[in-house]
Fold:
Amino acid sequence: MDNLIKIDKKTVLERFHPIDKYTHKGIQGHALIVGGSYGKIGAPLLSAKACLKSGAGLVTAYIPQCGYDILQTGIPEVMVETDDYPTHITAITTEANIRAVGLGIGMGQHQETQQAVFHFLKLNTLPLVLDADGINIMSENKEWLEFLPAQTIVTPHRKELERLIGLWDDEADKMKKVISFSETYDLVVVLKGAPTRIVYKNNVFENTTGNQSLATAGSGDVLTGIITGLLAQSYDPDAAAIVGVYIHGLTADLALPELGYHAFVASDIIANLGKAFSTLYE
Ligand SMILES: NC(=O)C1=CN([C@@H]2O[C@H](COP(=O)(O)OP(=O)(O)OC[C@H]3O[C@@H](n4cnc5c(N)ncnc54)[C@H](OP(=O)(O)O)[C@@H]3O)[C@@H](O)[C@H]2O)[C@@H](O)CC1
Ligand SMILES: Nc1ncnc2c1ncn2[C@@H]1O[C@H](COP(=O)(O)OP(=O)(O)O)[C@@H](O)[C@H]1O
Ligand SMILES: [Mg+2]
Structure:
């Protein structure tokens, strides 16, 4: 592919914003993580934690009631707003002054949740990351793609992509279809995999960090949190995606000597975020 740009340290440093000495949490931005359902509260917990540990000043998780104690105990730094319903999300509202939203992880596709997404999208103008069931719900309601703000970031794995754009013949056909999809709806598409590629405005970026340790439950939920955290810090959406996938992959490379390929879990991505971001200051 002739327009392929490698995501390496140089590409990332061109887009990275070091944290200013005189910043405060208001400047660092307030992110909203929307997701979770009964049995899948771990997803927003991991995502919200990763979001905060990627530099967002404040993070609120919007989850169904059943996740309240879990979130508040799992990460006391994160604020929580709950839906009126116990097991899944039925409305998406917040009192907070939010700068970026990550939506869909562990959320399920209950009919009421789909309606909640519809009403949210009709009013929302905030920068947005859509993952997991956020993507699956769009696949079930393709006419809603029109409501997405410009440069919304979508982060499908292979199956989620197939639901969203349909099957492709081969790799070249897939990239052609994704580029066209990205242009039609003005989306930053993060094609998760080995390697992860990012498609935006006819440019294709390919990540150089990460390894098979990342093939573990919740690693995509963590990526959503990282990218949402960067968006909350006012990164351009394509830059947030590029810096996010690089840092996410780098955590697995840095942890490899200690954890190997087997013992690495999604929480280890979060545990290694500090080391990964620090390499950008060296
Ligand atoms: N602790 C929690 O709360 C967790 C909650 N989670 C939440 O669960 C929900 C369901 O998400 P999900 O991705 O597991 O299900 P789904 O979209 O049906 O995909 C399954 C099929 O797709 C494929 N496939 C999957 N990954 C692929 C990849 N990387 N690369 C390529 N292919 C891949 C694979 O298909 P196969 O290869 O077998 O044909 C597989 O059978 C979602 O809301 C999520 O946030 C999870 O994050 C886990 C931790
Ligand atoms: N073999 C691999 N090599 C590199 N990265 C991988 C590999 N397998 C999975 N990943 C990464 O792990 C993440 C998996 O995301 P996803 O499938 O959404 O997980 P989950 O839904 O369980 O959170 C993606 O960022 C993907 O690129
Ligand atoms: Mg996922």
About this structure: The pocket of magnesium ion (ligand 3) is lined by residues 131-132, 157, 220 (CB under 6 Å). The first strand starts at residue 4 and ends at 7. The two ends are 32 Å apart (CA to CA). Residues 4-281 form a domain with the UDP-N-acetylmuramoyl-L-alanine:D-glutamate ligase fold (CATH 3.40.1190.20).
